[in-house]
From TrEMBL:
<keyword id="KW-0560">Oxidoreductase</keyword>
<protein>
    <submittedName>
        <fullName>4-methylaminobutanoate oxidase (Formaldehyde-forming)</fullName>
        <ecNumber>1.5.3.19</ecNumber>
    </submittedName>
</protein>
<dbReference type="GO" id="GO:0102317">
    <property type="term" value="F:4-methylaminobutyrate oxidase (demethylating) activity"/>
</dbReference>
<dbReference type="Pfam" id="PF08669">
    <property type="entry name" value="GCV_T_C"/>
</dbReference>
<dbReference type="InterPro" id="IPR006222">
    <property type="entry name" value="GCVT_N"/>
</dbReference>
<dbReference type="InterPro" id="IPR027266">
    <property type="entry name" value="TrmE/GcvT-like"/>
</dbReference>
<dbReference type="InterPro" id="IPR013977">
    <property type="entry name" value="GcvT_C"/>
</dbReference>
<dbReference type="InterPro" id="IPR032503">
    <property type="entry name" value="FAO_M"/>
</dbReference>
<dbReference type="Pfam" id="PF01266">
    <property type="entry name" value="DAO"/>
</dbReference>
<dbReference type="Pfam" id="PF16350">
    <property type="entry name" value="FAO_M"/>
</dbReference>
<dbReference type="InterPro" id="IPR029043">
    <property type="entry name" value="GcvT/YgfZ_C"/>
</dbReference>
<feature type="domain" description="FAD dependent oxidoreductase">
    <location>
        <begin position="10"/>
        <end position="365"/>
    </location>
</feature>
<feature type="domain" description="Aminomethyltransferase C-terminal">
    <location>
        <begin position="704"/>
        <end position="780"/>
    </location>
</feature>
<feature type="domain" description="FAD dependent oxidoreductase central">
    <location>
        <begin position="368"/>
        <end position="423"/>
    </location>
</feature>
<comment type="similarity">
    <text>Belongs to the GcvT family.</text>
</comment>
<dbReference type="InterPro" id="IPR036188">
    <property type="entry name" value="FAD/NAD-bd_sf"/>
</dbReference>
<dbReference type="Pfam" id="PF01571">
    <property type="entry name" value="GCV_T"/>
</dbReference>
Amino acid sequence: MKALPSRAQVVIIGGGIVGASVAYHLAELGWTDVVVLEQGQLSCGTTWHAAGLVGQLRSTESMTRLIQYSTDLYARLEAETGFGTGWKQCGSVSVARTAERMTQLRRTAAQARNYGVTAEIITPTQAQELWPVMRVDDVVGGVWLPGDGKANPSDLTQALARGAQRRGVQVVERVRVTGVTVKDGVVKSVSTSEGEIETDYVVNCAGQWAKEIGRMAGVTVPLHSAEHFYVVTEQIEGVRPDLPVLRDPDGYAYFKEEVGGLVVGGFEPDAKPWGMDGIPYPFEFQLLEEDWDQFSIIMENAIHRVPALETTGVRMFYNGPESFTPDNMFLLGAAPEVRGFFVGAGFNSAGIASAGGAGRALAEWIVNGAPTSDLWPADLRRFARWADNDTWLRDRVTETLGLHYAMSWPNKELETARPLRRSPVHHLLAAAGACFGSKMGWERANYFGTAAPYTFARPEWQPQVNAEIHACRTQAALFDQTSFGKFTLKGRDAAAALQWLCTADVDVEVGRVVYTGLLNDRGGYESDLTVTRVAHDEYLIVTGSAQSTRDFDVISKGLGEHHAVLVDVTGTYAVFSVMGPKSREILQSVSKADFSAFAVGTSRLVDLGYATVRATRMTYVGELGWELYVPSEFAVTVYETLLTTGLTQAGYYAIEAMRIEKGYRAWGRELGPEVTPAAAGLRFACKKTGGYRGADRAMDDQGRHVVSIVLDDPEAHLWGGESLLRDGEPVGYVTSAAYSPTLGASVALGFVSDATMEKAQVDVAGEMYSAQISRKAPYDPTSSRVKA
């Protein structure tokens, strides 16, 4: 064993492919005072038994780009390091057994076009030509991605580690981490079985052990292990070395050539959690016991797809546990709880494909002090402390493993480990017939009425949502938006701190509400939110539920030396929104306050029935309306008072459709770390004098523009992700979409490369529909209804 250094600038915990990739890329960026600690041998945890599939296409552009980089890296790594990687660009074929699955694959192909990935829709006959040993009598079609491939995980790890070591990185095996010392919220050192290492940065790439390592430092790393299976067969006639990877998601199975035989694995819909009492130590190059009962659903479907398997022997059964996260996306980035602590873990059986790009992204984040691309889908900060619960994680992982091959239905909700976080009026929503969804652990009413099945067509719940929208547009509707993230910033420097962080001028009089962006140094959106000045030295900050952990981290770190304290008060207040042209008179009927005296963008305390609440004239649906911030202990009383007025209760599907009709942007859809205010069409929310973070780049539109889109055909239905084309060439894509009963057609927001476009074709699962393109909102573009 190499001697353990007493100090290193960076300590990477975990010598799997992700840890090796981070080390390689740190060294490539010139940071070589790095030590990698592995409790066993390199790749001995999860990496060694990974199947090694590398599929490029992911649900977002940024994640697809990340894996595209992985494929480029793996293709050149052997020449650079002299170590074989087993990389082979053999392509992949995915087949569909049902019309619904084929619709999903057609949507996948359209997304591939958006992201520059070659994808071809193929017939059953073409699929069999690419993969001769399968049966296709029940196949309705497929998709061919020639850029996909496979690699040898252990060899890749060794090659990355060798590349890092050649630049000066130390790799120390047989050293177990026993603790992480944190002082004043900053990483100081790592304790090991061989002594202490002082350090400035800890990078937790410990795989299944990452949750335990995180807890040593007080960092939430929400993942849980599950048993994961595949078999390696004897040789099969017709299986050749250049055979593509085959995926049969309707049968939960994948197939990869291996020495003339097949690796047959998959993702069963009901997984088997493992390691509830912690991962044993040592656990090197180990497998769990065979479980043919658990594997049977995969094997039966595999035999159906490849009949030769029925008479082919099995050389090896692999039951190798892997870690899975609550939403099937890996965990990457800086921990919000501790400065200098980074995480790259929870790769959900996709670590080989992701490791190259994820390692580079994390290394760049460490070196530059901020991400250099949009990593929100994988950002560790999409979860909060509540997610670090073993019982909740165990129950959720039974579902997330199977998401790999589950149908990617629009608006699909996870079902396990619910309910968790509930509004004080959850029982009243349930009694009214709410169909709930979940966001950041919160149960939220999607709509009211009969539950309906998932579909790619216009859903059965659409009439119910149409009625909610009609009530809001013609009378008024009541929304429970308690899941908003809510913070207070208080202190003598609160205004000065926010003036630097916020694009808009927030040094306003008490009682004013300001819509603003938070930008990064590249001029891209870290968030958009509202800021209400409630006292000369205090602000109420309200943001979306999904990014509340992230926003708290961005703001708190951005305070610098300013004298101000940020406090999360999300659970302290319920939020009820009363929106619609009749909202003023309805609220007036239960309050002595003068609602006619409220200007747009003002906020003050008012009586409402027996309670005192904060009423803020602000809207996300494009109508006259108020958000009511209610102390949680008064929430039920206030909600019951509002119901006495006859208000229609409405849910988040209605909010989504109305905000798209009005052209309001949403963070994570139209706004993100690589989207500037100029590109988003939000120059109006920026101080003309500058003086805010990212101002020097905020007015660069980057050659893309957010626009509103309305389909000409009233029967076609958009969901988001569709490709926009002009003369057959991609010119943009849809980011958000819904059916608009107000306009009588599907309405959407999206990006285009040409700001002067007025028309485009929209690829809806392979069918082309014409659409009108505008930079103005299709509903109330002058905001006369908001100003009423």
